[in-house]
Amino acid sequence: IGRITQTLQDKAMWQDTLIVVLSDNGGPISLTGGASNFPLRGWKYSNFEGGVRTNALVSGGFVP
Predict the structure, then answer these.
(1) Using an 8 Å Cβ cutoff, are 28 and 21 in contact?
(2) Distance (Å, rounded) from C-alpha 40 to C-alpha 26?
(3) Are 28 and 42 in contact (CB under 8 A)?
(4) Which of 5, 21, 26, 31 could link 50 by a cystine bridge, Cβ 3.0 to 4.6 Å?
(5) How many CB atoms lie within 10 A of CB 39?
(6) Quick one: average pLDDT of 48-56?
(7) How far apart are CA 5 and CA 26, in angstroms?
(8) Where are the domains of the chain?
(9) Cis before residue 39, ω within 30 degrees of 0?
(10) pLDDT in tens, 2-16
(11) More confident residue, 62 or 14
(12) CA distance 14 to 21
């Protein structure tokens, strides 16, 4: 992200840019395989942390 934002600033494009970074809400768990949401409990569509907690970032240079 740092190199991307620096390049946008160097090319004078940062003021017209909005960067959105987000994550999916946990991996599916099944008997035939699936994902590990460790250290969080739960899975996709559950009410535990593994199903609802995600990281997100919104950043940009736009100033009205």
Answers:
(1) no
(2) 9
(3) no
(4) 26
(5) 7
(6) 68
(7) 28
(8) 1-59
(9) yes
(10) 898 899 899 999 888
(11) 14
(12) 16
Give the tokens for residue 20. Answer: 């959105």
The C-alpha torsion from 4 through 10 and 15 to 16, rounded to 10°, is -70
Query: Which residue in 28, 57, 56, 58 sits closest to 43, CA to CA?
Result: 28
Please count the CA atoms within 13 angstroms of the CA of 2 that sit on its side-chain side: 0
Element (H, E) at 20: strand 18-22
Residue type for 57, please? L
Measure the CA–CA gap between 14 and 9, rounded to whole angstroms. Answer: 5
Alpha-helix runs per DSSP H in the chain = 2-10, 49-52
3 state SS of 44: coil
